């Protein structure tokens, strides 16, 4: 039998020539974008970007929910108007205690006896039991009776135990502890 030789097709000589022209020489390196490490790095970067986008979408939805809750709360009002007004007089020396709340919203006026010749200006800090400052009144002066006065709405603070710390300002502007009282807020 005779072997049949195949005749090259019309595009084959050009195909051989282009393969021969594109053949790499032994010392040549492929371009950087054809390196396997570039593809792996790009895939890792895409994975990180996808995870970051998912995280951002989740945090944005949490922020939208929180904003909607705050807007609803602002529409109804943060503070309930007090139906009663009560006055409590306490002395720093006795380490008094004050309670507020327990039913209807009330306004509690606190009068702290601060008859000290050492200080003219005072700072009052309201702290939670864990020591976190909730609010403070800065540079308060005594009234003519020698008392520091301030008022709180019972719906302002969540139910918990608080301490009220009183500090006096020296002539240099530094604060010195004067005393404190405890406060309990109930609903």
Estimated share of beta-strand residues: 35-45%
CATH topology of the largest domain: Immunoglobulin-like
Total of domains: 2
- Give the total of beta strands: 8
The level-1 CATH class of the largest domain:
Mainly Beta
Uncertain residue ranges: none
Compute the average pLDDT: 84
Helix share of residues? 25-40%
Shape: elongated
Give the strand order, joined by hyphens, for the main sheet: 2-8-7-4-5
CATH architecture of the largest domain: Sandwich
End-to-end distance, in Å?
108 Å
In short:
The protein has two helices and eight strands; from the N terminus they run ααββββββββ.
Task: Please name the defining characteristics of this protein.
alpha/beta; Immunoglobulin-like; 36% strand; 3-stranded mixed sheet; 5-stranded mixed sheet; 2 domains; elongated; 2 helices; 187 residues
Describe it.
- The protein has 187 residues and is α/β, with parallel strands linked by helices.
- It folds into two domains: 35-76; 84-186, Sandwich (Immunoglobulin-like).
- 28% of the residues lie in helices and 36% in strands.
- It is built from two helices and eight strands.
- The protein has helices spanning 12-22, 36-76; strands at 84-91, 97-101, 106-113, 121-128, 133-141, 147-153, 160-169, 175-186.
- Strands 2-8-7-4-5 form a five-stranded mixed sheet, with no helix packed on it.
- The longest helix is centred in the first third of the chain and has 41 residues, at 36-76.
- The radius of gyration is 39 Å and the shape is elongated.
């Amino acid at each position: 039998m005779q072997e049949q030789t195949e005749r090259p097709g019309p595009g084959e000589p050009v195909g051989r020539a282009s393969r021969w022209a594109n053949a790499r020489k032994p010392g040549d390196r492929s371009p950087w974008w054809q390196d396997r490490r570039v593809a792996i790095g790009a895939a890792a970067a895409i994975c990180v970007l996808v995870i970051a986008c998912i995280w951002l979408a989740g945090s944005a939805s949490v922020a939208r929910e929180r904003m909607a809750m705050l807007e609803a709360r602002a529409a109804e009002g943060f503070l309930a108007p007090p139906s009663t007004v009560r006055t409590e007089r306490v002395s720093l020396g006795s380490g008094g205690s004050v309670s507020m709340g327990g039913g209807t919203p009330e306004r509690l006026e606190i009068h702290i006896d601060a008859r000290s010749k050492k200080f003219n200006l005072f700072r009052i800090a309201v702290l939670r039991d864990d020591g976190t400052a909730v609010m403070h009144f800065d540079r308060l002066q005594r009234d003519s009776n020698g008392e520091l006065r301030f008022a709180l709405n019972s719906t302002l603070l969540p139910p918990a135990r608080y301490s009220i710390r009183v500090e006096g300002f020296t002539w240099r502007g530094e604060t010195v502890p004067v005393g404190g009282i405890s406060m309990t807020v109930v609903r």
